[in-house]
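Sample entry (66 residues):
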Amino acid sequence: MERAIVKRHLKGVIKIREGRGYSFAELREVGLDGFRAVEKGIPFDEYRRTKHEENVQKLSSILKQK
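Predicted structure, serialized as tokens:
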């Protein structure tokens, strides 16, 4: 399962790393909530507050496959 990406801004440099899971805003964008995401095996990180379009696109492609 592909994990979500997390961007970090530090002195004008953007660093991208793999996150623990998708944020609530990203899940809501594709029509899921945290409980249904966990049921489907999609990782959910309750502490993330950001929404990235790359993650939303990954989620929508994951849901099309299932």
